[in-house]
Amino acid sequence: AFALHASYFSNSHRNSHHRTTIMAPTNLLALTVATAISVQAALGASVASKSRFTCPDVQPMKGLNTTEFVKATWYIQQQQVTEYLPPDENYCVAQTLVLGNATVPFFSGPVISVYNYANIDQVNGKPANTKNGQVLCARQATPGDPARIINAPCFLPNQLAGAYWVIGAGPAADNYEWAIISAGAPTVEYSDGCTTKTTGVNGAGLWLFTREPSPSPLVVQEMRMILSNMNYTLQLLANVTQAGCNYDGAYIITP
């Protein structure tokens, strides 16, 4: 994943649908079927995608503007707790992307250098990674689908890279002020939706990015609503503290 520091890979509210089962005698079968059809129509497709046994088929966004996406540093506002993203590193998390200055084995397509940064235990604490530390290589390995990014240390081939999909960015194609990154499609079910894994590296992680270190709370709320509408659970997203950060040792590119 992008949001990995030197020691690992990568940089709530929710409405729940409650089902009511109506036990009807056989002579009311037609009425029961009609009622079920009406309820499904009223609730929409989200009911089907939030099946107790099926997670939503989330895909990368269409038409990612790569130039806009990498033009400046991203600041992480919320990120999912995983084995490689412990809560004690949820301070001053930033990520800078640089297109075209790296290569990976057996691949000649676009490669994006990934510079991750975070502080440990407190704002302006010990850095988990710096611009002189580990650099990852994100690869746009699917022609015509630039948001279907995979990511890994630069010495690893694509076969060992993990999904790091851009599933949303906005507010406009020529102005990305926020972005949502998911480590592939959600596969783990919770009571209020699905999300990516919390164990391992590949397939684990979910991030809310903004260009501003301290954006309007409405921007984060919008991203959370988008995830909720995609039937992601939000209960594992943890806040990242950005207020007061100096980003000492980080590779920062301003818009």
What attributes characterize this protein structure?
single chain, 255 residues, alpha+beta, 4 helices, globular, disordered N terminus
How would you describe this structure to a colleague?
- The chain has 255 residues and is of the alpha+beta class.
- 15% of the residues lie in helices and 29% in strands.
- The protein has helices spanning 29-43, 45-49, 66-69, 217-229, and strands at residues 74-80, 91-99, 111-120, 126-129, 135-140, 149-153, 162-163, 165-172, 175-182, 188-190, 193-195, 206-210, 237-239.
- Strands 1, 2, 3, 4, 5, 6, 7, 8, 9, 12 and 13 form an eleven-stranded antiparallel sheet that branches. It has a two-stranded antiparallel ribbon with strand order 10-11.
- The radius of gyration is 20 Å and the shape is globular.
Summarize the structure.
With 255 residues, the chain is of the alpha+beta class. It has helices spanning 29-43, 45-49, 66-69, 217-229, and strands spanning 74-80, 91-99, 111-120, 126-129, 135-140, 149-153, 162-163, 165-172, 175-182, 188-190, 193-195, 206-210, 237-239.
